[in-house]
Amino acid sequence: MRNIKLLIEYDGTNYAGWQRQKNAISLQQTLENSIKSITGEKIEATGCSRTDSGVHAKGFVCNFYTCSTIPEDKYREAINSKLPQDIIVLKSEEVVQDFHARYSCVGKTYSYTVLNREVGSALMRNTAYHYKYKLDMESMRRGAEHIIGTHDFSAFRNLGSSVKTTVRTVTKLDLQREGQCIKFLVSADGFLYNMVRIIVGTLLQVGIGKISSEEVKFILESGDRSFAGPSVPPQGLCLEEVNYNI
Amino acid sequence: MRNIKLLIEYDGTNYAGWQRQKNAISLQQTLENSIKSITGEKIEATGCSRTDSGVHAKGFVCNFYTCSTIPEDKYREAINSKLPQDIIVLKSEEVVQDFHARYSCVGKTYSYTVLNREVGSALMRNTAYHYKYKLDMESMRRGAEHIIGTHDFSAFRNLGSSVKTTVRTVTKLDLQREGQCIKFLVSADGFLYNMVRIIVGTLLQVGIGKISSEEVKFILESGDRSFAGPSVPPQGLCLEEVNYNI
After folding, report:
1. B58 and A90 in contact by Cβ < 8 A?
2. For burial by CB atoms within 10 Å, which of A159, A178, B26, B89 has the most?
């Protein structure tokens, strides 16, 4: 069996997230069906992470095993010809047998986009979170500095999946203003459930002065979810990049 | 009767353009119905231009006359509460009686977004035109210089609406690379039917070397539509701003 790795972009608006589900259309199922119609095999696609409903990806990675003899780079076009327009394979390649989209992953980068103006947006309604209050970028950046590093992120996760450890290393947390938007870029070796959305929700509270930038440190140390800010909605979140050593 | 001016943003994907039509859902009709459900009056909204199906706007302007006594700035929220999410009123204000969204207009700016990479995009499928060939930005910029100024733009229009004159003044034609996208910004005192889309289509031909940048001048002087490039598709086009002296 050959092991094929796919790099995928998707608009998550119309899907119930990555993971196959009984009563809703998932990205995994849609992709697997498209692959099946190419190779004739019933395959299982292993994703790099479970993304929630409404979350997008510019660089999602998955892999699947196949007996098909299609040249590695030709899967891209073949699968794209069967996929709906809101999912697209950007790259296909054959990888070593033990490459696993989730277990082989050593890091990920997510972006979160906040539209920061008085009125919402029709064009960005599915790709940004509208937040109308004035934000102090400098306070948010100072708050963000406490997040960077290796910490127990228990205060920044929602329950929903079991993990062995709640310690993660955030290597980057950048905030940039781009026109009327604020873009958060977060890189880590791994993320807990809703971790990015709670980090952003907490930093927005810092931005409006409800939480001081110094308090972010204490929230982190408390390990208490109730001290952190709310999870911001899914549509602002996008999986930008997944890293592998393999 | 009061004259109310609205500044509107919309995602044109699911509409048959601005103008009311018999067998398709238009932006005009959708907006007029929302206003009617607020004021109780059957009104007619006058748009600054007819945008084609699939074309977007961040700063479309229209006006309507009403007997309603709602404070001028409150129309925004009231109408938004009735509109679908792909149309949003950004601003509402009362203007002088003879303000007319189309006739009072002295200039407009459109953007056109080209996604210039090998594979298309799921997230930008409705807001950019995917063009995979390598483009020479400098040639395109030199070609664009010939477009700027006052010219007869007969070679850069499709038939579809009658006009008194085909002379227009293009005051700005900028090309910028933004990541994997190329953004065209075009300002003029007015535009002929499909003019921006033909300008972009012609400059893309310059970018791949099918038309030289000097030839743009001759195409313009010829007044012959068949010499110019094709009209690029609607989804890359966005009405950014409309200017008034009134």
Report:
1. no
2. B89
| B100 burial type by CB count under 10 A (0-12 exposed, 13-18 middle, 19+ buried) | middle
Quote the distance between the C-alpha of residue B96 and its chain's center. 25
With DSSP H G I counted as helix, E B as strand and the rest as coil, what are the percentages for chain B, rounded to 5? 25, 30, 45
Contact by Cβ (8 Å): B116, B135: yes
Q: Is the pLDDT of residue B145 over 90?
A: yes
- For residue A88, the chain B residues in CB contact (below 8 A) are 119-122
Question: How far, in Å, CA of A30 to CA of B68, rounded?
Answer: 50
* Cross-chain residue pair B123–A127, CB shorter than 8 Å: yes
Alpha-carbon distance of B71 to B167, in angstroms, equals 41
Nearest CB among B9, B120, B122 relative to A121 is that of B9
Q: Is the dihedral of CA A21, A107, A128, B25 positive or negative?
A: negative
* B181-188 vs B87-95, strand pairing mode: unpaired
Check residue B102 and report its DSSP letter: T
What pLDDT shows up at residue A183?
A: 98
Once rounded to an integer, what is the mean pLDDT over residues A31-39?
A: 96
Q: pTM higher than 0.90, yes or no?
A: yes
Q: What are phi and psi of B232, to 5 degrees?
A: -75, 160
For residue A189, indicate whether it is catalytic: no
In a mutational test of the B interface, the residue from A79, A119, A127 whose CB has the highest number of chain B CBs within 10 Å is A119
- CB-based contact A24:A54 (threshold 8 Å): no
- Name the CA dihedral angle for A189, A194, A196, A202, rounded to a multiple of 10 degrees: -130
Q: What are phi and psi of B78, to 5 degrees?
A: -65, -50
Rounded Cα distance, A246 and A109, in Å: 18
- Report the complex ipTM: 0.94
Across-strand partners of A93?
Answer: A5
| CA gap B195, A134 in Å, rounded | 39
Number of residues in chain B? 246
User: In this complex, how many residue pairs, one in chain A and one in chain B, have their CB atoms less than 8 Å apart?
Assistant: 52
Interval A142-183: pLDDT, tens: 999 999 999 999 999 998 778 899 999 999 999 999 999 999
CA atoms within 13 A on the CB side of A77: 6
Joined together, the tokens standing for residue B119 give 């594979």
Smallest CA-to-CA distance from B183 within B98, B230, B106, B240 is with B240
Rounded distance, CA B194 to CA B110, Å?
Answer: 12
Which residue type, as a one-letter code, is found at position A85?
A: Q
The full length of chain A comes to 246
Query: Whose CA is closest to A38, among A5, A8, A67?
Result: A67
Tally the C-alpha atoms within 13 A of residue B194's C-alpha that lie toward its C-beta.
Answer: 21
Considering the candidates B52, B152, B174, B224, report the single residue annotated as catalytic: B52
Query: What span, in angstroms and rounded, lies between the C-alpha atoms of B170 and B186?
Result: 7
